[in-house]
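To whoever is on call:

I kicked off a structure prediction for a single chain this morning and the downstream step that reads the tokens threw a length-mismatch warning. I double-checked the sequence; it's 162 residues and nothing unusual in it as far as I can see. Pasting both halves so you can look.
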Amino acid sequence: MKKSLLLGVFVLSVLLISSCAYLVGGGDKQDVMVNSSPEGASIVITTTGGVEMFSGTTPASVTLKRKYKYNVAVNLDGYKENTVMIDQTLNMMVLGNILCGGIPGGVVDALTGAMWTLEPEQIVVTLEMAALEGGSEELYAVVSYLGTDNQRQSVPILLEKE
């Protein structure tokens, strides 16, 4: 009786460990949080091949497929554009497939992208004020408002020193 119980626990343990990362490690998609300082910046997320996957404003939580690497462009009027790369690292759940001979699970992980984890999982971009060409430095305040067509309008206003 004890031997069959131990054998059952062992078999169950092996099955759980050899489960593919798709089932145990969160599937083929992952949530990535994008934020900026100041908030309200526009973001465009594209694959490294140039296919747009998301467009919106910060803060944003975006669900991305793990089988791609991404570029995140963050832009706000009056600030320099900033680009961050989301890279892939090996999902450690894949090691269960390798150690326990779960070849079918490994194939599923490779085909779906579940063998990868997207890094960083949380992006915070601090935007830098833009400067004019030619090296002159002038300070502008950017006033943003919703226009008649419900589109964001921005007007730069030159600030003078006293």
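Update from on-call: the warning came from a stale cache, not from the record. Cleared it. Sanity check on the structure: The two ends are 90 Å apart (CA to CA).
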